[in-house]
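User: Good morning. I'm curious how zinc ion would be positioned relative to this chain. Could you predict the structure with it bound?
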Amino acid sequence: MKLILLGPPGVGKGTQAALLESRLGLRTLSSGLIFRQEIEAETDLGQMAKRYIDQGRLVPNGVTIQMMAKRLKSSEVRKSGFLLDGFPRTIEQAQALDEILSELDLSIDKVISLNVVEDILVARLSGRMGCTKCGAIYHRDAKPPKREWLCDNCNSPLFVRSDDQFEAIRERLAIFHESTQPLIEYYRAKGNLLEVDAAADPEEVYEHIIKETGA
Ligand code: ADP
Ligand code: ZN
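Assistant: Good morning! Here's the predicted structure, ligand included:
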């Protein structure tokens, strides 16, 4: 199964990706997560990307496409099936992805477009915390950890993303409308778009995805 998760920041792409990965064994390729790992490792790519990410802007298409192409071409990802989270995010990236996939003789089964109203997105993003080790996601009000600032799963410290600040959140939402939303029409025209209301709790959203994709 090869899937793309599309949707605004805060809609729950990361949460659904984690569920799909652990239950279906799909490999998740999350562009945001890969960038954060590059930043953590202080690579050249990470240092370059950080300037954009902290402001809530998109990392330029060229480097992003190169980074994702490298990972898509690894045979492990192709064997287990994959789930793209956060990529593509622009029409240029979607066209590049089409080329990469055709070179590899692969095709996407479904593009899952998650959506909720903007007020919910802002509320979800502004209380969000993540585990530094296992990637589990918490929320100050909706899903607080049992012990303050510690992960329930693995005891590691929690952190707040540098781009989950009010100004960067506003910018990310604006960029979503401008650059990423056109992808919904792009994939609708290709006939493999699945639109999912992501206002429900994560389990319900997951069940809906599984039912509709036949995964
Ligand atoms: P969210 O969907 O919550 O905004 P992500 O973790 O997917 O979070 O992305 C965080 C940031 O990483 C983005 O705001 C952007 O700066 C950068 N980024 C991630 N994916 C891409 C992409 N495909 N193209 C350009 N920049 C990206
Ligand atoms: Zn953890």
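The two ends are 7 Å apart (CA to CA). The longest strand covers residues 110-115.
Let me know if you'd like a different ligand tried.
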